[in-house]
């Protein structure tokens, strides 16, 4: 069990730092003498990690104040679902289920890429930015209360770590823009491959190298974000692991296309795409697992699914203070 505490001054909503934060309410008796009481809340790491899914801490900054100190909606759920809908279809196509032929079948879900992936995720990203879920300012670290709600693994005031709250804005905008890039590139209206006709068209090295380089870059981005999720929870880490491998194998398939000269080569490329879909399926399952937890937390339905907290298992804090 982990003890999580918070210091709060009643009446003005101000938070203060102490060596060990605690929840304190100030009252007066009949003679006007000040009275105080201390309440310590003890919860398991599993319960503590669930607080991350519905952050409700007071926000800082002018934009946050303009929209209210307590958010009325959690844009994380919107961004996650808008990512998973086109992602699920993409993975199933790569796995070649029900006669799907990658990458041709991906053209059929271009609308999902445009509206759900691009517009939906960027709206969620902007909302995360407004709520302050974009960066971590070391000069103005979060208060004890904000650490409690933002998923910090240590409640002490000298160890500040925000495992995922600094990522939603960047993640939603980056991957939302990726869906838009993919949709535009594959949209027959734009006929992107026409510019490569003298270099072999869609099967030439000029075109496929550009696609391969894009997927290599997205693989690198996904890997870096995956590193950042190692102290959050297992499903989130599994989601980005699946993305890393998916982009890696798609890049391998792209770079293999120009040298394909036989049916065996084409079969090998299809196998690479199928393996990419297989790894992507790991992220698919993990992502929808998180959605179930998010939905239950949003409407206060008891959810028996474990979070698989990693905050105390991967790079545990060295400076952890206890009462």
UniProtKB/TrEMBL annotation:
It is a multi-pass membrane protein. GO terms for molecular function: acetate transmembrane transporter activity. Signal peptide: none annotated. GO terms for cellular component: plasma membrane. It is found in: Membrane. InterPro entries: AceTr (IPR051633), Gpr1/Fun34/SatP-like (IPR000791). It comes from the Eukaryota. The keyword Membrane applies. Keywords: Membrane, Transmembrane, Transmembrane helix. The keyword Transmembrane helix applies. The chain crosses the membrane at residues 76-101, 113-131, 159-178, 212-229, 236-253, 273-292. Belongs to the acetate uptake transporter (AceTr) (TC 2.A.96) family. This is GPR1/FUN34/YaaH-class plasma membrane protein. It comes from Hortaea werneckii. The lineage of its organism: Eukaryota, Fungi, Dikarya, Ascomycota, Pezizomycotina.
């Amino acid at each position: 069990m982990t003890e999580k505490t918070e210091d709060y001054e009643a009446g003005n909503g101000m938070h203060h730092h102490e060596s060990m934060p605690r929840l304190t309410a100030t009252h007066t008796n009949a003679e006007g003498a000040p009275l105080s009481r201390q309440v310590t809340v003890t919860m398991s790491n599993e319960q503590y990690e669930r607080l991350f899914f519905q952050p409700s801490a007071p926000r800082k900054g002018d934009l946050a104040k303009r929209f209210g100190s307590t958010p009325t909606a959690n844009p994380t759920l919107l961004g996650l679902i808008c990512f998973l809908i086109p992602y699920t279809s993409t993975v199933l196509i790569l796995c070649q289920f029900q006669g799907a032929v990658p990458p041709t079948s991906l053209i059929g879900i271009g609308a999902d890429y445009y509206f759900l992936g691009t517009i939906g995720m960027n709206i969620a990203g902007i909302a995360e930015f407004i709520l302050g879920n974009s960066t971590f300012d070391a000069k103005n670290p979060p208060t004890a209360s904000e650490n409690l709600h933002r998923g910090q693994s240590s409640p002490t005031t000298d160890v500040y770590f925000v495992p995922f709250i600094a990522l939603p804005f960047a993640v939603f905008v980056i991957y939302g823009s990726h869906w838009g890039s993919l949709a535009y590139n594959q949209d027959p209206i734009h006929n992107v491959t026409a510019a490569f006709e003298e270099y072999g068209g869609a099967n030439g090295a000029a075109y496929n190298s550009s696609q391969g380089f894009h997927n290599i870059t997205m693989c690198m981005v996904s890997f870096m974000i995956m590193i950042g999720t190692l102290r959050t929870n297992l499903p989130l880490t599994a989601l980005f692991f699946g993305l890393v491998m998916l982009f890696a194998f798609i890049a391998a398939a792209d770079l293999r296309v120009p040298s394909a000269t036989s049916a065996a080569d084409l079969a090998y490329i299809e196998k690479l795409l199928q393996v990419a879909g297989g790894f992507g399926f790991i992220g698919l399952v993990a992502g929808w697992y998180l959605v179930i937890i998010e939905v239950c937390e949003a409407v206060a339905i008891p959810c028996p699914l474990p979070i698989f907290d990693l905050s105390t298992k991967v790079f545990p804090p060295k400076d952890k203070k206890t009462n």
